[in-house]
User: What shape does this take?
Amino acid sequence: MNDNIVSDKFKEKCTLLDNGSIMIDFNDWESISQFVYDSGFDYLMCITSYDLESDDTLGLAYNFYSTSEKKYLEIRIEFNNKEEIFSIANIWRTADWHEREAYDLMGILFKGHPDLKRILLPDDWEGHPLRKDWEEPEYYNGMPVPKDKSYWE
Amino acid sequence: MTSIVDYLLNLLSFIEIDTSLLLIFVILIPGIGLFLVMTVNAMVAVYMERKVSAFMQDRLGPMEVGLLGFKGGKKFWGGIGQTIADAIKLLTKEDIVPDNADKKLMLLAPFIIFIGAFVTFVAIPFSENLVVSDFNIGIFYIMAMSSVGVIGIILAGWSSNNKWSLYGAMRAAAQIISYEIPIGLSLLLVVIVAGSLNLGDIVQWQSNHRWFILHSPFTFIAFFIYFISVVAETNRTPFDIPEAESELVAGWMTEYSGFKWAIFFLSEYANMLIVSIVASIVFLGGWLSPLAILNIGIPEKWMFLDGPILGFFWLMIKAMFLIFVMMWFRWTFPRLRVDQLMYLCWKVFIPFALANLFFVSIWELIF
Amino acid sequence: MGANFLSEYINNIIYGVKSFITGMGLTLKHLRNKKDLVATLQYPNEKWPLPERNIGFEPSDYNVIRSRLHVDIDDCIGCLQCEKACPVDCIKIDTLKPPKGNDYDCGKTSHDTQKKMIVPRFTIDMSECMYCDLCVHPCPEECIYMVGGPNEDKHEIDYEFSQYERHGLIFEFATSTDEDILDIGGETYLEERKVKEEKRKKGEKLEGIVKGESSESVDEDQPEKEKHKDPLLEIFNIVPDKVARGIAKKAVVFGKRSGFDFSKISEEVEGRISAAGKTTSEMSTAIETLKNYKPTPIDIEDPSNSKENESSSKVEKGVEELASKSSDFNVKSMDFITDKMIRGIAKKTFMKCKRLKLDVNATIDSIISDLDTNSKLDNDTKEKLLSFKDIGKTSDNLSEIKETIKEESNSLFDIKLLNAIEDKMIRGSAKKIYMAGKRANKSSSEVVEDIINELSDKMDDKTKGLIGDLE
Amino acid sequence: MYKILDKSIIGADEMVLNMGPQHPSTHGVLRLKIITDGEIVSHIEPIIGYLHRCFEKHCENLSYEQIVPFTDRCDYLAAMHMGHAYSIAVEKLLDIELPQRVEYIRVIMSEFQRIASHLIAIGAFGLDVGAITPFTWTLRDRERILDLFEQVTGARLLYNYIWPGGLAHDLPPNFIRNSIDFLDYFEPQIIEYDNLLTTNKIFIERSADVGVMPKEVAINYGVTGPSLRGSGIPFDLRKNEPYSIYDKFDFDVPVGEGKMGTIGDSWDRYYVRVLEMKESIKILRQALSQIPDGDVQSAMPKKIRPKKGEVYSRYETARGDVGFYIRSDGKNIPTRLKMRSPAYCNLSVLNEISAGWMISDVITILGSLDIVLGEIDR
Assistant: This one.
């Protein structure tokens, strides 16, 4: 059910995955995103950030929907967690908050984002909880973080 | 229309202490009387408001708190002692004063509002000869005293050093001052026709002719303009923008709790009583019994319903009905925005009030 | 312009007045026929579920109820299904199986299935339960259910179970007495329960004890308790391939149980591994270390008296009694030193050597050397320490041992040593600096300097001395 | 009637007003940092995260059956929708075929939940504008629906009723009779709300032409649900991308026509919810009459262990379309579960549409967007 104008326009850059989503490389995301917006996908449904455990690569899944032609499109990017991804917050305004959440919980940096700062967690929180290698800090500003169940063992 | 103060003066003249001391003593008695009137009125009005609002919202309101063991009716009218319990709670509640608030002003504000309401009661006649002191400039005095309350509100808003109260105070200032003009104009209307500022004479005029509300279509509209702007004057919905719960948390009363908040509450209900009594005196024929205006040939002996004692009841019934209508407004209408409030006052009430003034004077010439 | 402005102005007002009147008419209607429109429930005297009123229907229509959990303990067969199903783990069940020989009859459930074990502890923490009803479905005996509604006959509804104290909300449903447990052979279970009880009574309440600290106090008075880590099996942890590791460990356990010595066990392992074709380099090094393995004192006794008994409580018991009986040299034996400071240092060095798996006399020498470096050693503590040396051999390479300790010291000291600081706030911040130092993998001396110049104003000299000696 | 002053002439020095996390009308723990000159608002920055419970981290340690009660706690005012959306996503992953009875019961439950959620939205919107009585009336009717829910699932707010692959329990004996009684009782009530609130002059003054959201801004900010339909875009997942058995029922999608002001103002968003309640009643009547019988737990897999892969499924809740993106790699625990929350995007448009209005209008606009903080902060 996925649309293929994108894949045949950018034949060489993207590989078609089994469930119809398109995997592309992160540094030509800038040109592809502009093209996706122009070809009618005006509604960005969701940006999901995920962590592939193997050698600290992170992933991003963009789900688009075109309200005019009623078509879906899913674009996936997988990259090393040091990379900076092009931010599409200036094209789809809803990406602003989704990207801030991806940075906040997964630690993905976005280049060109209006104000990239934590959205859900307190501003002075260290670490990104949704990473697989995340371990709970013992203290946060002097308050013990792990729930003390000593009365209950 | 003998006033209580003179009556008491010559009653107690046989005590030979010098007159100024006697005067102070004599003034104390009606003062305490007025304070009692205010507290009793607050008690009754609060209970009535909670019950009326409850029934309008398909619930039962206070049902549990009883008075000396008598819990009130089982079915609907329970919880008689609720307002007394509230009063005691408010008096015993801790009186929090924010640390960088202006303490002296904050303490002063509620009492200014209270005095504004308390002093207005002096000129209000409760019945034919039941008036604390009979001014011949009755209405003018009431108008002047009821605008003292604004200063208290602004003081309260400013001194509690909190953004919400500041907003509330600014809105209250704009609202109350601008609504005094339609009130003034509609009262002026009555003075033109009745020819005197004294409330007693106005009622006297109404007993000779007709109630003012039926005098002419213009006074009929003037009554409604008066009544709605008086609702705005006492900050009641749909004009309760200064203490809007959903926007300004509690407006200028945000930082108050305990005794000072009780004073605000007391003076709010006292103001309601004042304005509804003035409305019933000026427009609905004060202590005249409604049967008189019907004058459909009721036999003479029935007229005794009109004596000074019963007059008090007629006045109170009319005032209570107007208070009920105010409560009715509160539980039906949403709240106006500040600029819509101003629009209503300056673009609707004042033009209509001026037109009324003009047409009534012509009406007077013709009839 | 004036005309339509005026008309708009006028019908604006007329529309407004009309809508006011309809609105007020509505509220008056509600005021008038308030009798049948009242929808509220007078709580203390009218309780839910109540006989049908104009609200709609009878409670007997109920399909399921969601209220407090209740357990008929004599139906419970201890299958732990509910404990697994609970998303917030608020159910804790302990089960005790009677050993093979002992024919203890655990009784029948109401569906007359024979119970194979008894449940000495079945606690549900009602303050954690989120009433999601996931535990009721998997229960084969339907013994855990929510009170009231369709289960009204089993247990009437109870939604007023608030308590004065947070622990009050931990509901204990098990009813087995100590005698049942004893004659089922669960002495160790009773002791454990006593230990937990007394630890809780000792006042470790909720003021935010971090997991590390609480296990520290446990470590102090018994050898490691959590999982009986057999050093023999640990050797094979270096083997990355899980399957090979499994075979090797099974071989070692088999060897130990049948009383082989280490060379025989290593041959056994080698045979099985080559049979499975899993011989890799790590595997052969592991077998090598197993062959010439130098058993520590605890380890020697263990294989000789290891009777054939599977139940973990049995093995537990063996280690337990062995530790207390022999005059073995462990942390408690330091307690004879009266002065707190010296005892602290002595215990610290003991822990350090224990981690380095040094033998008894090496540890004693290092303690003596540490004590006299801090000029805290008087001669009677020295005699006492030397008396502990049961094996006559005086270790000649004292200095060599000291290097191992020193060489170990330039890597970072253990964070648990910071627990000696009494004041919680300083301990917290000191740990934070320690973590920062650890991340930047500084050496312990640098970390100690950071701690001192960071918290120098807040610390009194005793803690400064204590941190100083961590160097 | 009164057009807002154009902002440039104000220019007084700005004041930061903190409509803090604890405020009577922020519908939950939301903090609005508002920069105002006097009453006019120049910039709003919603600060969220006060109710963040890292739902997505929980999901990475819970099995598929255990996640259902957690999805209820995301949007606690429409818990049935969350459970339904999650179950559809997992069923898409497992590609299970559901018996018809389960589908019908799920539609009935979701439509009742939509009415209940809209009732709270309307009541709270009235409260924000200052009318207290409609709030108590709407809640009284909502209680009737909660009683129906309690009868079926046992719980009033957080049901844990719709499981992946089926339902927790079947319907109780005379549930159908009770729900039809409720619908007959409820239909005239909507007319009563109309008279009291919708056509009230002050209410119209306060909400018409306030916070107008043009079409492109709505789509660009990802606004969905009644707020989007209020701007005139007839986009409803149940109609455009029918899932489950919504294609069997005929109902239409109410859209804001700017009756009382321009298209896309707060009044339109409010009125779309009132009309949607009528539509839900239509669906309910059809569903209740055609419900087949059968066993509700027949298609329920004993152990949910989906094959490796990803799925993104959308569902129309009372606030917009919620999306579940689940990545699984064969274990019974999802490796990654992302919930796209509609109120999260609806709230992000607040600054765009409320700049230049007064503070009391910010409250009205926030009320018309109908946000729930549990779902925003997850």
Remarks:
- The interface with chain A takes residues 92, 123, 125, 166-167, 170, 196, 199-200, 204-206, 208-212, 214, 425, 428, 431-432 of chain C (CB under 8 Å).
- Residues 2-32 of chain C form the longest helix (31 residues).
